[in-house]
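Box S1 | Example of a co-folding query
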Amino acid sequence: MSDETPRVEMETDIVCVGFGPAAGGFLTTLTRGLMNEDGTPAAESKVMPGMPPQVICYERADDIGFGVSGVVTKGRAIKASFPDLDLSQIPMACEVREEKILYLGDPVGASRRPKLFELADKALGRWMKDGAYELPYIPAFLEKHPGLAFSIGQFNQWVGANLMGTGMAQIWPSSPVAEPLVEGRAVKGVRMADQGVEKDGAPGAGYMPGMDMKAALTVVADGPVGAVGQALNRKLGMPGDNHQREWAVGMKCVVDLPEGCDWQPGTVLHTIGYPEPEIFGFLYVYPDNVASLGIFVPSWFDNPVRTAYRYMQHWMLHPYLWKRLQGGTLRSWGAKSLNESGKRGEPILCGDGFARIGEGSGSTNVLIGAGVDEAWATGVQLGEAVLELLKSGREFTKENLENTYVSRRRASWVEKEAEVAKKSRDGFTKSVLSGFLGMGLSGLTNGLLNMPGQALKPQERIPSIEDYYRDVIPAGEIADIRAECAKKGASLHDALMNRAGWPEIPLDGQLLVSHQDALLMGGKVQANPGYADHVRFADPVICAACREQVCVEACSGQAIYTNPEGGAPLFDREKCIHCGACMWNCSKSDPQDRERTNVKFMAGSGGLHSVEN
Ligand SMILES: Cc1cc2nc3c(=O)[nH]c(=O)nc-3n(C[C@H](O)[C@H](O)[C@H](O)COP(=O)(O)OP(=O)(O)OC[C@H]3O[C@@H](n4cnc5c(N)ncnc54)[C@H](O)[C@@H]3O)c2cc1C
Ligand code: SF4
Ligand code: SF4
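Box S1 (continued) | Returned holo structure for iron/sulfur cluster
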């Protein structure tokens, strides 16, 4: 699309991209300070003189209560924003009451365990209950007690409703922002995604070029894979040698627990060890016998068939969990990327006319996998800074934002804990064992001691399928499996996992459902017409020659699939849940930009929606 395209132009004072916890913290703080107690504006809008500053927040998804994350959090910043927080106002929220870390043994014998894990399985065997060992204590750095457990969808909806009630900010769902309006190193606002275009972006019937929304301040709160944050990283570069090479796919479901299940509301379980040693699991019990549970498949899991969905089902079937889950019913399901680079993935936090908050700004504590309260806290810090600047009549320059927002952030617990966590996962770049050792070292020494390691680009780590299965499946057999799957247009992971000893999933149509059924149950996946495909292959020729096609194996919604006629995989927007996992789960670099993969993940509307997630 050429820049000469005539576009509608509008102006506001502050435009915010994305409505997650970071934007929630920002808007909650900002809107409370925009009016004086006597009802006069605390500062004046530049675009509507006499009125308080005009604030608009654009959210890509069709609902502001969208989110995919079971949340357990200490909730320090959230509690500070709502000192009289009454959890009964938020469905599916409760206090954390009991926390356990479980080491899960391998009940099927197919997990790829390093020798030390096999020894641990044997040594701990006599103390295991239902194949799991409950660690006798939780290191203080991992503890979330006292804390909160809630559904991020319900929380976002509650925060959004409170905000709309103030009338001080507009939140627009179904509004994907295509890119920031960058002039030099300044940001002047945002450009909305074009509508009425073909899937390749070419103007179609009803073409409506995306509007330009100019603003004195653009707040980028679009999470780990947002198009605006990604564009800024590309255009402005990253500070020093920072990078965002560490990611995980978080896949979860919300489940009605069976009657008689002995998990009480506020129970929090963290698991390690199974289905593969690299995969972490979580389970949080909400009131009314409902639980949120799932796994994280990280970038250092060097398996080209890294299908989170099937691994999640094997995890649920672990005897310790299945004993309590059997008879339960799936209410909803989803997946989302998690930026695991943390502080090391911190981009340029502000510049003339823009500031970044939340996970895309590197706020997530990667040692303990906590991002919600951290994102909220950075939003609060920016909210306070913006009020200070507005009230003193100062501009949103880089210098002023550094002195108000960034200085608050640097002095806060978010920064201190992110520093402790910064190198905590470096060990995983070598092996899973040095990874766990590194986490323990960093956590117990407050970040003083760490396991060294150099993060590679994920696409540089992924081995070929033949290499990964070298000791398990002969290359000739892999070739047969490839040919068979290609004929059916099917992905390889089921066939390869079956062959590698993983039992078939005993689908029960209730909790253990097919991947396709999960897309349809307890949430809606929709792709609004008139938008361009938001997942594209930078160089389809590279895809055509790609033998791993990790994007197909890892796609959370089965939206990327093998082309039965050969060539690059195909993309079906109707199934895409916008998790962004394809962007990093690709084994080849973008030839134009070697830091990034051959998948371009752009702004788009639709996706998976469930306020329960
Ligand atoms: C399965 C899972 C479990 C997790 N569990 C926990 C936990 O227990 N505790 C915890 O503290 N953290 C947890 N996290 C991490 C936590 O969810 C994130 O750290 C947190 O959501 C980050 O908040 P955010 O506001 O920065 O970004 P997000 O929550 O990602 O919000 C960004 C918003 O921006 C929108 N957006 C993106 N692009 C655009 C665009 N171009 N235009 C308009 N809008 C856009 C997105 O749709 C989204 O709503 C978990 C994550 C996952 C995936
Ligand atoms: S997107 Fe990446 S992994 Fe998928 S086919 Fe193309 S090059 Fe291979
Ligand atoms: S195509 Fe959609 S569902 Fe599949 S990995 Fe990419 S973003 Fe996720």
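The mean pLDDT is 94. The CA atoms of residues 467 and 475 lie 9 Å apart.
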